[in-house]
Amino acid sequence: NLVADELALRMEGIEGVRDIAVSRGPERPELRIIPDQEKMSAFGLNANTVSQAIRYRVEGMTASLYREDGDEYDVVVRHKEEFRQSVSHVENIAVPNPAGQMVRVKEFAEVKEFFAPPNIERKNRIRYLTVSSGLHERSLGDVTADIQAELDEMDLPDGVFVEFGGQIEDQQEAFADLGLLLILSIFLVYVVMAAQFESFRTPFIIMMAVPFAFSGVMIALFLTGTELSVISLIGGIILVGIVVKNSIVLVDFTNLMSARGLSVVQSVITAGKSRLRPVLMTTLTTLLAMIPMVLSSGEGAEIWAPMAIAVIGGLTFSTLVTLVFVPVVYVLFGVQKVKKEKKQVEQQL
Question: Taking a C-beta distance cutoff of 8 angstroms, is the pair 167, 140 a contact?
Fold first, then answer.
């Protein structure tokens, strides 16, 4: 409990943290009756008899019911309040033994005062308590980093460890799930394109724009002062299917020109001139559709705005890469393919 109180005190100095609460309240005093087994045996007493006698005299025993005008009242029998207010009063409680004798508690037990927690929480058989707080005008990641810095400065006793839960745990699990989803989406997009183009090289060229899309996401989030969140990461995953669209349009037309007998460089130049307008049109329609989501100030706008910012930044950056970097990669692969085919022809001759 001391560790939790110290952490709560340190958290009060962290910006953006408010409504700090510890799940366990302050310790409360209690009396413990520690019996002497030998003395209890000598008097013919046992723990059950002693505990019931003390409970009946302090807490009370429902002896009967009193009925009046259709109402029932419990008749509780116990010591008067002035005879159950101190340790000496508890020590003088008389307990009957099987021989009919009245034996006082102090004759066979010791009464001590202790301080005990009001409640004990357990998880997986491990005692724990929770230090919780709310957020105010700061991101969850920044506050978590500050709390971790405070924990690093604390000297935790042996057997005491700290784990983050609540929204922090949910966010970490969500990032892990979305990371797996991202890998799966990239794999599926590659497999579909490989089946459509009947080539492993062409889908690789097309997907060169995907890493740069995530660079655009980071740049957009940085310029707008937006934190990377689950929603913005969802926008990044959506980009995997969007950014390859422009590359497919460009590469497919380049393959068509190459099949008609043009050289690799000439095919790329022709495709760039012919497909520039469709690429810009599809990109602008998507970007313009996302702008209202960014500028909206209605209810829930702050939740979905990061996704729109991620899509706008990633799509803008990836489009530039599609128009410049993808053709360059296509030429490099095309030149290597031409050299390989030329070498095979020379070997046959």
Answer: yes
Q: Sign (positive/negative) of CA torsion 335, 340, 346, 349?
A: negative
The tens digit of pLDDT for each residue in 40-62 reads 888 888 888 888 888 888 888 88
Name the nearest CA neighbour of 308 among 215, 239, 246. Answer: 239
Structure tokens at 161: 């460890």
> Is the whole model's pTM more than 0.70, yes or no?
no
Distance CA 236, CA 307 (A): 8
Max intra-chain CA distance, the chain: 122
Tokens 């995907």 found at:
210
CA distance 239 to 314: 7
Closest CA relative to residue 180, chosen from 257, 117, 233, 251: 233
- 111 forms beta bridges with 33
User: How many Å apart are CA 347 and CA 340, to the nearest integer?
Assistant: 11
Under DSSP, is residue 129 helix (H, G, I), strand (E, B) or coil? Answer: coil
